[in-house]
Amino acid sequence: MTSPDSPSSIVGTAPGLPKTARGERTRTRILKAAEETFGTLGYHRAGIADITRAAGVASGTFYTYFSSKEQTLRELVQEMGRRLRAHLERETADAGDRLEAEEKGLRAFLQYLRDNPALYRVLQEAQFVDESIYRRYYESFGERYVRMLARATDRGEIRSGNDEVRVWALMGISNFIGLRYALWETEMDFDDIVATVSDLLRNGLAAGGGREKS
Amino acid sequence: MTSPDSPSSIVGTAPGLPKTARGERTRTRILKAAEETFGTLGYHRAGIADITRAAGVASGTFYTYFSSKEQTLRELVQEMGRRLRAHLERETADAGDRLEAEEKGLRAFLQYLRDNPALYRVLQEAQFVDESIYRRYYESFGERYVRMLARATDRGEIRSGNDEVRVWALMGISNFIGLRYALWETEMDFDDIVATVSDLLRNGLAAGGGREKS
Question: Per the database record, which ranges form the HTH tetR-type domain (chains A, B) (predicted)?
């Protein structure tokens, strides 16, 4: 990250993007402070002054990297999405097949959400600032997920089917299970939850012979 | 509804609850206007004057039935939940078993959401007014749903399992599938979507022999 030839997509020459490693660290610190501030106060109540105070930078520094509070939210949501995806990729890297990756992925997601509760709140609130922020987050997540299911079908790990619909169903499961068991309940162990969802994804709900019925 | 002995739970003597059928109609009209107004303008931008204008009542009339905008939101969310549940009960009444009820219920939910898009927006926004409104909506929905799954298990229609976790997974599926295919896309036919989710719920995703793996 110290070279201008760094492959990082963050370092660049577009306006607002830092040109040095130090600038990149400052920008990252402002985004982290925005995450905490939006997560605690809510987007509407949070001011730029709250963000710069939390980041320990002057307010002029904020405007070196961001043009507005809304742009900060937009970039923060993208950054949170990248961070979560990287986390899930790491945690599912050694899964033997797609269904094991789903199981490990759900567990990793629940733990991540419990450790980073601001993610959920900021994302939900973004809907009311600009729905396209929220929509792009899930669409971008969904596109990669569809490719993963398609590869799993090719490898014979799951049956073929409408993977886009399946992906939205799977994201819906993680979202509500996360809300209920990682955010609202902060103590519950994830073992039984993950086992129940994994069984649903592997086998469905039908009492013996479900496969023949459809 | 014309008798004071009406069994309706709405007619009552508690402060703010109408004592006559006419009063009940006015209160219902105000709630309907609040739904439209919150759905269009958003809760924060909508004022009580917007609600009374949409309902065609004087602002004094509003305060006969509601103490504040927040109380209106709270009662509206409860009322929307009751209406949706009644709709789903009607639409799934002739289902032969729980898995058929899930299929009919998802289709009915998607159509309902497409016809009543304010439901989603008002409910989502309620999270940021008072999270307990949002939480109570889903908890109340979930409690009934758990009882339905338990009865289906007793009848041998589905395998036994942790029904509370299953219910939050099922509600998550409906929520995201509804967001994606009923609200964001307003033209798409529901047949393939419902068939895909139904297949997931009946059979899971595992390629042949999933049941043995778990």
Answer: 24-84
Residue at a domain's end among B29, B45, B67? B67
10 Å CB burial of residue B202 (0-12, 13-18, 19+) is: buried
- Is the pLDDT confidence value at B16 over 80? no
| Residue in this structure with the two tokens 């993610």, named with its chain if needed | A119
Residue ranges in chain A modelled with pLDDT below 50: 1-14, 210-214
B124, B159, B181: residue with CB nearest A124: B124
pLDDT at B209: 52
Are B105 and B199 members of one domain? yes
What residues of A are in contact with residue B200 (Cβ under 8 Å)?
161, 166, 169, 201, 204
| Same-domain status, A171 and A137 | yes
In chain B, residues 152-211 whose CB comes closer than 8 Å to chain A: 156-159, 161-162, 165-166, 168-169, 171-177, 179-181, 184, 192-193, 196-208, 210-211
Distances (CA, A) of A48 to A13, A25, A134, B103: 24, 18, 21, 48
Same domain, B38 and B121: no
Q: Where in the sequence is the domain holding A198, given as residue range(s)?
A: 71-213
Residue A7 belongs to some domain of the structure: no
CA-nearest residue to B39 within chain A is A128
User: Which pair of structure tokens corresponds to residue B154?
Assistant: 């007793």
- Are residues A117 and A40 both part of a single domain? no
Q: What is the mean pLDDT of residues B162-174?
A: 98
Number of domains making up chain A: 2
Interface ipTM above 0.95: no
Distance of CA B189 to the CA centre of its chain: 21
Q: Does A129 touch chain B (CB under 8 A)?
A: no
| A158: three-class secondary structure by DSSP | strand
Q: At what angle do helices B98-115 and B163-178 cross, to 10 degrees?
A: 40
Cβ atoms of B179 and A142 within 8 Å: the answer is: no
